[in-house]
Design brief:
The chain is mainly α and about 70 residues long. The protein has 3 helices and no strands.
């Protein structure tokens, strides 16, 4: 359990929320239950991060198209 939590903490510190959430899947049920409130917030954060990445990618694609003279 300690190793799983340490791994998840390291992943969070590295900004890898998705992998941290996956790491926590290895906890026993009692540990998963205890982490449920944090997990809900982390899942929301991961979703926001994915959406921001998608917006950023779209914006960069639009800028590249404009730089090439496209509409």
């Amino acid at each position: 359990v300690d190793a799983t939590l340490a791994r998840a903490e390291h992943l969070v510190q590295e900004g890898d929320i998705d992998h941290a959430l996956r790491a926590l899947d290895g906890l026993p049920q009692a540990g998963r239950d205890a982490m449920a409130p944090w997990r809900a917030r982390a899942e929301r954060r991961a979703e926001i991060d994915r959406r921001v990445s998608a917006v950023r990618a779209d914006a960069l694609e639009d800028l590249a198209r404009m730089a090439r003279g496209g509409a």
